[in-house]
Write a structure and sequence with these properties.
Quinone Oxidoreductase, Chain A, domain 1, Rossmann fold, 2 domains, alpha/beta, binds zinc ion, seven-stranded mixed beta sheet, 342 residues
């Protein structure tokens, strides 16, 4: 079967790989749709790890239920792509995102666990979740990134009437802004360096206004609009410079949630955070409950995630899709791949 593997910096290769074989334990799934995620883009940018088959946001059809006797062939499923140990304190308290093993064998993020940029994958049984009939394949592949935004917004603890700034108008930013409004935020702003994405956030109705983070008057502009600053700032950019200026946009007593990831150090004078008594919270992934919440929110039409999907492409166009998502000028935030089409 065909797979898109990381070959080099910003380069995929479409190559033949072996189909996973049933072992009566893991669930074998034919992949229908796979979303391209921001964290995948980090790996593609770095060209590492070589040979990795990415794709941790997917919908597929069960071809072998493994040990999941409740599943049958043809059932449509998605999965939490993580690999929690299941017995540590974090796992036992419903927080698999804290488990030290959660990312060690994550689907599409680890070489030994190929993701959905190929036709058939094998997933550990306890992470597989059956999708209801009223969720489309595309919506199923949107559950994972939607859950990331839901988790960030839950941690932000938004109250009715709050003013919220979301930094970064990629998919996690848009989903977080959508949930901030659902939580009762009175005003939701998005800051972006790509005007096409900024405008799109307003057009899609998830943000009330967008601010150009590249504008030299960015801070003045934003603090003129919201004097005193925002109750909550959610970083979905992972950009260190952006995180530094977020400290200036949060109001005294405010909360900053860091959902974007960066390996680079952030520099700021602690006095800013001290004098404002800022709460700074990291946010990673989701709980299983939040993941399931997203499935039911989508199934019950409480949220519309399809408005974020820009395109669906065959496996052979995955390289082009990544280039489009990283162009800095295109407004695309979510492209899905059909790994069985090439
Ligand atoms: Zn992701
Ligand atoms: Zn654990």
């Amino acid at each position: 079967m065909k797979a898109a593997i990381i070959e080099d910096i910003k380069k995929f290769k479409i190559t033949d790989v072996e189909k996973p074989t049933p072992d009566n334990e893991r669930v074998i799934i034919d992949v229908l749709k796979t979303g391209i995620c921001g964290s995948d883009i980090h790996n593609w940018d770095a060209g590492q790890p070589k040979g990795l088959i990415m794709g941790h946001e997917f919908t597929g059809k069960v071809v072998h239920p493994g040990s999941r006797i409740d599943l049958k062939i043809g059932d449509r499923v998605t999965a939490l792509p993580i690999s929690p140990c299941g017995h540590c304190e974090a796992c036992e308290t419903g927080n698999p995102q804290y488990c030290p093993e959660t990312w060690t064998h994550a689907v599409g993020l680890d070489l030994d666990n190929p993701g959905g940029l190929t036709s058939t994958i094998s997933v550990r049984p306890d992470m597989v979740i059956k999708l209801p009939d009223n969720i489309s394949d595309e919506e199923g592949a949107m559950v994972e990134p939607t859950a990331v935004g839901l988790h960030a917004v839950h941690l932000a603890d938004i109250r009715v009437g709050d003013k919220v700034l979301v930094v970064g108008g990629g998919i996690i930013g848009l989903v977080s802004a959508m949930f901030a409004k659902l939580e009762g935020a009175e005003f939701v702003a998005i800051s972006e360096t790509n005007p096409a994405r900024g405008e799109k956030s307003v057009k899609l109705g998830v943000a009330d206004e967008w601010f150009d983070a590249k504008d030299e008057n960015f801070l003045t502009n934003i603090l003129t609009k919201v004097p005193g600053g925002f109750d909550v700032v959610i970083d979905c950019s992972g950009n260190t410079k952006a995180v530094e200026s977020e400290l200036m946009t949060a109001k005294a007593g405010g909360t900053i949630v860091l959902a974007g990831v960066s390996q680079k150090p952030i520099e700021f004078a602690s006095v800013i955070a001290v004098m404002k008594e800022l709460t700074i919270i990291g946010s990673i992934a989701y709980t299983k409950e939040e993941f399931k919440n997203c499935i039911s929110l989508i199934a019950n039409k409480k949220i519309d995630v399809m408005k974020f999907v820009d395109d669906i492409v065959p496996l052979t166009d995955v390289q082009k899709a990544y280039e489009r998502l990283t162009s800095g000028t295109d407004d695309a935030v979510k492209i899905m791949v059909e790994p069985n089409k090439y």
